[in-house]
Each structure stands twice: as structure tokens, then as C-alpha cells.
């Protein structure tokens, strides 16, 4: 009997959730349309201008693909690296902890733009002949962004680890769990619960930071849009196109970050522990 | 069953345990009392090797266990522990808290572990709370779950580190009742507590510790009514009020 009731309650709740999601999506699309309408009528340009797209389309599509590629590579690399370094910072092995601290302090203190330039310009000279290729500079530049973000993510993971009380580890040990088991089944799920929200923040920053690749001709959205802009300046064209193009760029970055933070919200829900509710103030 | 010999422990300049020797026989419920800072908690933690003794031996059923070729995880399966602050895993339901040890440490199948966990929860009177989360329970209920969790890996003995000190007065009884039933069932127990009623009715023997040493040892009525040492007398008079 109880199970039938539980299933019914769950189904109702799920229906309510998906209904809310639908309303939310409708709101966003409506808001977007209003936004485009405002652009057209008050600011005098339209992101749907066909003549503009005739000039811009190829750059936009190729740039978007490149940007997505960078995100798809940099994001996982930075998470893995950040997690490892965050873990190292709280490791009981002191020899792991201090290099991790040096890493974090270094990459937090140096402008990412400088790191990208150093990595892509100087980097290839430091590597042996057989690694050389046309894309090596870009690869190293992307790696630099991943390294930069990893420093911030390391701090997020460290804070997560340190928020788990000593008693939790002792309790795991007391039932006979090995260090790695305690980590996987007790420490990690609780550490991640607190790491996910700030992590989603850092992901949004990282996605937008891929635009730094423009400084080393990364051929991503930001870079290619700059090139189109130069062409328009040089060869003449409707200057309102520029506004339309940069608006399109902004919208694309927004969609990207919004998608990622929506996914992170789902992850957040998965780590939710009942009884530990956030306070409303 | 459990024997410690000449245990010493330092924390930096602090000499917390200064040569502790005692033995608990199978099925005995030993109570340890003493002022805070006397080293009771550290002593318990030395027995299941949550803290590594600097000197001395820990023996379980005659075999020394604090040596490099024996994994401390194995020792902790033999000797369970219940903490003052419960330390239930906050991200797991009550049932999962109890199941974690059997599944991950003992390698039990999930169905078998579930059945066993439910049985243990029934034993501590919390069958109805299996799907609740720790933060949804009272302190007394949490501590009973913690006892079920300790029992779930089938230990030969259980250490209790002031199990009722963090509880509101109205919940102390229910935890002590579970512990008393456990003692009656023949579980070997070492209990650090200031619950004199429990000590008198359940334990055969009380150790009084102060400043890292065992000062006095005796039957409950002797320790409470006729202590031989000045320090024991001073402490007992304070807790009996």
C-alpha cells in the first residue's frame, strides 16, 4: 500500500517538476523574443538581418564549432587536473600538498592571457621536433586555459574536502573501510555536494575564457568575429552589423553557459541529502 | 579477549597515555570513567587503532594487532566503535548507513545486507526509520542507528566513546536501554561514560582514569561508594553531586 502511495506521490512530483521546466522554457523563449524585438525597434539593428548573415554565417558557424571543441577539451581536462590538485592539497602526504599549493598560487596570480601567450609562443620551442605541428601552439594555449581554471577548481574541491568533518572519516574507518573506500563512499559524495555550486560558477568563467584563444588566433567564435569586424571596417559595410554580430556572440556564449549550469543543477540535485536543507534568509 | 599492555601516547609535547594496562574478558561490559582530558577517548582510539599507540601492545584474543603486518582495517572490523557525536553518514539514508559496512567491507550481496540491516534496525527499535536521513532523526535515534551500523560488520567487541554525552536528557534512556540489551546479549563492550546508573547496573568493573593513568579499578559499588584513592573520591563526589 505504502509503495503504491509512494509511486503516486513521486509521479505527481515529477509531473510538477516537468511542468515547471516547461513554463520556465516558455518564459525564456518569450523573453528572448522580446529582447530581439527591443533590439530591432529601439536600437535599430536586428540579429536576424539576412545581409549581415550572408557576410557572417561561415565565421559564426566555424567559430562556434571551434569554441565548442575548446570547451569540450578544456573543461574535462581542467576538472580532472583541478580535482587531483585539490585532493593533493589536503593529502596526508605532505610531499603532495606543497607542490599543489605552489601550483594554485602561481596560476591564480598570473593573468590567464599571459599564460596563454607564453604557452603558445614559447611552448613549441621547448618541445622536441617530433611534437611540432601547425596546431601545437593552439593546443598549448588551450592547455594553459585548462591549467589556469584547474587552479581555481582545486580550491573549490579543497574547500569541499575540508568541509567534511573528521568524524565522518573516523566513522568510515571504524567500520573497517580502507582509505580509498572511505574516500569514495563517504568523503567524496559529501565533499562534492558542496563543490558543485561553485564549480558550476567556475565552468561559466571557463567557457567564456575560451575567448582568450583569440589572442593567439584560435579560430574560435571570438577570434573569427573580430576578423569579420576588421573586414567590415576596412572594406566598408553597415556598422550596425557589428552590433548584430556581437549580440549573436553574446547569445551563443549565454546558451553555452546556461546549458552547462542547467546540467550542473541536475548534478546538484543528485547530491542532495535530505534533512540538510538550505536556509532561506 | 581484548588486552592492552603498557600503552603510551604523545600528542606533541602532551603525554596523553602514560602506560595503560588492562584486560576485558569475553562478554564483559567494562566502564571507564575519568575527568575530561584524562585520556579515555584516546585510549579507546588506540584499541581500534584510529590512533596508533607510540608504545605498548594491543592484543585481541591473545594476538598482538598493532604491528605493521596487520592491517588496521581488519582490527576495526573486529572492534567496532560508537562515537559521542554519532557521525552518521549524512548523505546516506539510515538503511544505507547500516548497509555500507556489510556491502563494502564484508562483501555481502545487497539483498542479504538489506535484510541484515533491517533486522539490526528493528533490534534498536528503528525499523520504521529505515528510509529517513540522519538529519531527520533525533539525537537518540541517530545514536541507535550508529550502534546498528557498528553491529553490522559483526564485530567481536564494541567501544563506546561517551555515547550519551551529546544527547538531550530525554533521549539518554533509549540509547542506554539498547546498550544494556546489547550487554545482556553477551557483547563485549568498553564504555566511556558518566552514566552512573548504567555503570552500576550493566558493568561488572569500572576503571577510573586520570592524567593518562588508571588510578583505580573495582566493582561499581566499590568505586562509587567506597573509593580508595583521593582522586577517585574527588571525581565521584563531583559526578554524583
From TrEMBL, chain B:
Keyword line: Amino-acid transport, ATP-binding, Cell membrane, Hydrolase, Membrane, Nucleotide-binding, Transport
GO molecular function, one term: ABC-type amino acid transporter activity
Ranges of residues in domain ABC transporter: 2-236
InterPro entries referenced in this protein's UniProt entry, alphabetically: AAA+_ATPase (IPR003593), ABC_ATPase_HisP-typ (IPR030679), ABC_transporter-like_ATP-bd (IPR003439), ABC_transporter-like_CS (IPR017871), MetN_ABC_transporter-like (IPR050086), P-loop_NTPase (IPR027417)
EC number per UniProt: 3.6.3.21, 3.6.3.28
Record family assignment: Belongs to the ABC transporter superfamily.
Annotated protein name in UniProt: Phosphonate-transporting ATPase, polar amino acid transport system ATP-binding protein
Amino acid at each position: 500500500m505504502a509503495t503504491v502511495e509512494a509511486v503516486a506521490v513521486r509521479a505527481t512530483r515529477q509531473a510538477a517538476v516537468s511542468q515547471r521546466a516547461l513554463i520556465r522554457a516558455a518564459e525564456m523563449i518569450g523573453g528572448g523574443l522580446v529582447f530581439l524585438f527591443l533590439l530591432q525597434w529601439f536600437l535599430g539593428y536586428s540579429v536576424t538581418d539576412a545581409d549581415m548573415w550572408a557576410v557572417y554565417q561561415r565565421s559564426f558557424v566555424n567559430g562556434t564549432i571551434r569554441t565548442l571543441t575548446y570547451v569540450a577539451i578544456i573543461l574535462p581536462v581542467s576538472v580532472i587536473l583541478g580535482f587531483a590538485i585539490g585532493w593533493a592539497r589536503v593529502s596526508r602526504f605532505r610531499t603532495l600538498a606543497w607542490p599543489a599549493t605552489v601550483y594554485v598560487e602561481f596560476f591564480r596570480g598570473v593573468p590567464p592571457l599571459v599564460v596563454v601567450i607564453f604557452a603558445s609562443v614559447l611552448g613549441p620551442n621547448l618541445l622536441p621536433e617530433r611534437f611540432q605541428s601547425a596546431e601545437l601552439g593552439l593546443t598549448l594555449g588551450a592547455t594553459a586555459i585548462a591549467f589556469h581554471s584547474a587552479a581555481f577548481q582545486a580550491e573549490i574541491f579543497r574547500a569541499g574536502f575540508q568541509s567534511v568533518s573528521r568524524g565522518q572519516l573516523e566513522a568510515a574507518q571504524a567500520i573497517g573501510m580502507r582509505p580509498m573506500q572511505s574516500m569514495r563512499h563517504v568523503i567524496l559524495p559529501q565533499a562534492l555536494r558542496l563543490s558543485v555550486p561553485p564549480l558550476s560558477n567556475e565552468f561559466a568563467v571557463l567557457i567564456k575564457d575560451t575567448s582568450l584563444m583569440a589572442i593567439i588566433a584560435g579560430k574560435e567564435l571570438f577570434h573569427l568575429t573580430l576578423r569579420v569586424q576588421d573586414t567590415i571596417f576596412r572594406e566598408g559595410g553597415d556598422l550596425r552589423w557589428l552590433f548584430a554580430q556581437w549580440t549573436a556572440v553574446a547569445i551563443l556564449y549565454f546558451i553555452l553557459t546556461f546549458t552547462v549550469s542547467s546540467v550542473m543543477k541536475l548534478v546538484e540535485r543528485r547530491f542532495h541529502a535530505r534533512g540538510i536543507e538550505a536556509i532561506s534568509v | 579477549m581484548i588486552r592492552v599492555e603498557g600503552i603510551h601516547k604523545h600528542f606533541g609535547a602532551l603525554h596523553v597515555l602514560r602506560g595503560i594496562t588492562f584486560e576485558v574478558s569475553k562478554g564483559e561490559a567494562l566502564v571507564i570513567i575519568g575527568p575530561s582530558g584524562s585520556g579515555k577517548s584516546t585510549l579507546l582510539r588506540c584499541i581500534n587503532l584510529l590512533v596508533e599507540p607510540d608504545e605498548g601492545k594491543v592484543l585481541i584474543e591473545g594476538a598482538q594487532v598493532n604491528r605493521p603486518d596487520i592491517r588496521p582495517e581488519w582490527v576495526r572490523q573486529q572492534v567496532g566503535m560508537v562515537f559521542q557525536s554519532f557521525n552518521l553518514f549524512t548523505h546516506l539514508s539510515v538503511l544505507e548507513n547500516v548497509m555500507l559496512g556489510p556491502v563494502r567491507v564484508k562483501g555481502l550481496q545487497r539483498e542479504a545486507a538489506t535484510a541484515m540491516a533491517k533486522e539490526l534496525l528493528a533490534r534498536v527499535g528503528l525499523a520504521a526509520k529505515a528510509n529517513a536521513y540522519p538529519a531527520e532523526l533525533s539525537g537518540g535515534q541517530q545514536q541507535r542507528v550508529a550502534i546498528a551500523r557498528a553491529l553490522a560488520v559483526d564485530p567481536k567487541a564494541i567501544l563506546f566513546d561517551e555515547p550519551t554525552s551529546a544527547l538531550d536528557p530525554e533521549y539518554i534512556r533509549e540509547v542506554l536501554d539498547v546498550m544494556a540489551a546489547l550487554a545482556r546479549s553477551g557483547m563485549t563492550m568498553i564504555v566511556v561514560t558518566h552514566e552512573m546508573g548504567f555503570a552500576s547496573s550493566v558493568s561488572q568493573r569500572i576503571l577510573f582514569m586520570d592524567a593518562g593513568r588508571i588510578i583505580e579499578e573495582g566493582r561499581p559499588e566499590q568505586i562509587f561508594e567506597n573509593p580508595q584513592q583521593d582522586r577517585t573520591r574527588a571525581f565521584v563526589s563531583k559526578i554524583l553531586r
